[in-house]
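Sample entry (193 residues):
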Amino acid sequence: MFHSPMFNSMKYIILFLLLAFSVYAQSPARGVSVKTTVPPPVEVKQEKEKETIKNNSLDDDDELDKVFYTYYYLNLPKHLQKEGKDKKKLHSNLVGIFKKEVIKRDRSVTKEAIDGISPTTIKFKRVTEDSKWMKKIRSELKYIQFTEFMYIVRYQTYMTLILFHLDPELHLQTPSQVEFINVKQTEQMQDLE
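Predicted structure, serialized as tokens:
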């Protein structure tokens, strides 16, 4: 429905006049006493009980997702629960990718060195983008797209940063990105802090 600007301004003027009149009519200066009503204690108690019931129902609603997840999680097969994550899949992912990168990047690597790479001989750590060192890596190597699942793997002089889109403990997969370093020098590392 179309309203003219004059109609809108008249509407606001009428509302203002009604409000001003009601305030003027109830003002104590006109001799009209303003009576405040305080509900009796029984009514206050009933109101508080209603609010408590309302708040409890909200709390219950807020907790429904927790209850659902708890029952759902308890009924999951063990291999899908977090405690049952397969470290063999993680090791298989990391070792397989690491071996491929070493072979691809270092042509002088021997077969014995490749055969020596196993879950017991490598060192690995899951890293997060909150780490101050990962923040420095991100600032230096701007093309790296950090993911939720990032691991640094080391074996002798070889190091890799392996990034996955999915959890490597649950899925055998190819990485989204790999950064490879071959540390040939055995010099003392400088403290970069």
